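DATA SHEET
Item: assembly model
Revision: 1
Owner: S.N.
Input lines:
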Amino acid sequence: MSSICEEKLNLEEETEGVDPEVLKKELLEKYPTKVARKRAKQIVVNKLASCSEGLEIGANVRTTPGIITQRGCTYAGCKGVILGPTRDIVNITHGPIGCGFYSWLTRRNQTRPPTENDENFMTYCFSTDMQDKDIVFGGEKKLKAAIQEAYDLFKPKAISIFSTCPVGLIGDDVHAVAREMREALGINVFGFSCEGYKGVSQSAGHHIANNGIFTHVVGLDDSVKEGKYKINLLGEYNIGGDAFEIDRVLEKCGITVVSTFSGNSTYDQFANAHTADLNTVMCHRSINYVAEMMEEKFGIPWIKINFIGAEATAKSLRKIAHYFQDQELSDRVEAVIAEEMPEILKVREEVRPRCQGKTAMLFVGGSRAHHYQELFKEMGMKTISAGYEFAHRDDYEGRKVLPTIKVDADSRNIEELEVTPDPERFRPRKSPEELERLAQEGFEFKDYEGMMRDMDNQALVIDDISQYETEKLLEIYKPSIFCAGIKEKYVVQKQGIPLKQLHSYDYGGPYAGFKGAVNFYQEIDRMVNSKVWNSLKAPWQKSPELSAKYACD
Amino acid sequence: MKKSPAPYVSTTNACKLCKPMGACLAFRGIEGTVPFLHGSQGCATYMRRYIISHYREPMDIASSSLGEKHAVYGGEANLKQGLQNVMAKYGAGLIGIATTCLTETIGDDVPMIVRAFRKEMGEAVRSEAIPSLVNVATPSYSGTHMEGFQAAVRAVADQLADLRERTEAVNLMPGFVSPADLRYLKEILQDFGLKGIILPDLSETLDGPAAQDYEKIPPGGTPIQQIRNMGGSRATVELGRTLSKSATAGKLVEERFGVPLHGVGMPIGLRETDGFFQILEEIRGVPTPEKHRAERGRLIDAYVDGHKYVSEKRAVVYGEEDLVVGLTAFLVEIGIQPVLCASGGRSGHFREAIEEVTRDILPLTPLVREGVDFYELAEEAETLSPELLVGHSKGYHLAKRWNIPLVRVGFPIHDRFGGQRILHLGYRGAQHLLDRIVNALIEKKQADSPVGYGYI
């Protein structure tokens, strides 16, 4: 009996018969042998879940020098991604000017202070702007003075320090400075050793940032918010206002968000996060360890949810309702879904005939390349190739591979916190009987099965795709749309293929939740059906007989 | 003169970018070049992102992607491997290697590593297929993006320029100007009948057409063959009044090959442009072509027509020093009062240059501040009741706070469309700037009036 695994490609039509194994060979051809061997592990032809035994992808490994990558650095992940969207902490970059300047406010992460008088430092860029003499004689004195100055001018609740490459090299102790200034000023001051050269990508920076927030802030404020169903939203960064839409939907359902890590967030929310009764994880990559630590320390269980895609949003809401075991909540969730869906279906049906059968590629982030496949599916589009910029193997293959992931020197560099139950604040949210019942009903905690499981047989999965591979892929597959970031945008569009930015949403959005799905359908419809590239050839180039005729005249 | 306020320790909302970024931009303006940063990969990513958001064009920068281990033991192996990989996949004619704070702090000797790399490549290096390698030291804790830009231009001249044969060409070092400016400069040279070697030339590489066949390295940029013969040109024209008096590319070519150097201000506004055209007349020995004289005439006509809208308006000008000097020269000509001329740069020549370009028109030199950030700029400007800001996008929050127009010029512009196509230079650029400034002020007047006058 021929197994389903050997059946013909189920993406054959969309990829016009390109054999992904052959394509993979072609991608590797131009690399020097050693590089090719390394890249071969990071390029995988996907198999159906039932046949994926032994399928493994190389991820979270160093980028080869000279290969142009999408990845950023540890500092970028720490300061830009995690703390970037928090509005009331004064974030001081300790280093020369570039790093601070480049991580200075974009419209990517939105924030909404309740009143005009509420603090918002997101429009500021604070830097110690190190000069020659600071590199030679050390920058601690300047850093202290900068913290004092920031305090005198702004009187913030908290000040944090971000280390750039030279800081670690010259041996400035930002943590000692933080401790000293915390005592001197009486506010929370904490530092991050997030030098750019640490780790293999910004993922290391996420980890350092989250560890820091967990250590220095979470658990400081025990006041309990009003609300019957209290959750934290972890790994949601309010790109293009996503968190606003998610908050709207949750509020409508009667669910209270205690804290979001870290879209539209504030210092107080972090301090209070341990009072929630459930942690819901959006971006598994950047924050699953915080969910784990919060369970260990405070007894809050966590589940994976996804608010990208209308169906995924509905499913996630139902999952949250299920957790709380409350009919009233379940009824309300159903009512909200029923109310929101008609508009979504209307727009979906409108765009579907124009988008059906078109193809997408997604190379972005540590979760987005997975989540956005949902939206494309809803529109009738197929994802033929995808990969993450900085994710780890568990984000591709699911948490089941966690015990088998090798810890290398780069991972060892990132501190793993030892967490024990908090003597006063640890409180299991579910009794063993309740957990048993949930398990019997098929409810799963810590349930992330990774991106590859949701992808088609024979889809090409590529980790840390390079500029060179991107170009090759476009040339051979000619997808209808390519999703990545601004660095790739104009390269791809020069080749006549539209690129949707999923880091910044091209300053559009929101794309999360119900309203977001509608926005996304319309945006993608506009992009994949654009006629502008038909104009690349001038009319006289399009009809050669005509120009030939003129030439003869 | 007003005393400078007590300086702050930290930099809040900087008015400058980092040194290696300037170097990458300059390298991008050379034909077939891949800029390469020796340091952590984040530098390349950050700078690419920033440059791309202004130009809306591809911008590749390779990196040696150093990790913790290399920070301790040195980045030589990574640099060599990186160069090899760029060579294998990009078909680059030149790789422009700039250092970063990481590699400068650990003390990697890049010239030595590059020499060793060349040696290891042995015979291959002599073949035409192997790219030229230019390296420049750009620690970002010393100087701004402009020092990086100029250092890269100088490094290119230093490491590539030669005298192969005497030609009638003119070397033109334009400084950091827009692709639109560069296209216009080329047009001017052509109209004068001059063959120009413009270094660097970003006009095509950072503002290219949509193309059917994508090329990894965009066409355009200063041809390397021409750079190799810069020593044979008949003259060099270098734009910018605040350039170091001794360490520019033009100075180097003059000292090494005897090519006479003409240093002029960035030709913004009437007088600075007159100075530029005068030098071209001298070099070529012909009068300014009629087309440009006509543009000059129209510009003066517009100065007269626009005067009633702009006269006595109080402006704050900020950005790179040479750009601010040029803009200030222009603003005082049209009757605007620059109440504050500011830059994050610290060349040491800024105040003197502002004095030179305002002396003929203003009884007193405007307030000049070098090495400032937007926090200091705002503090100072708040006491001066400005009515107009002229500078890049980073001043937007001040324009919003003070409810005054911001006329966007220079780099970076990431809150408007078409930053790469803004024309600043020459008679034509002055015309564009004048139109935009007049209209910004009219728009403000209309917006502030409850009546809704449609005839102004």
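QC remark: Chain A touches chain B through 80 residues (CB under 8 Å).
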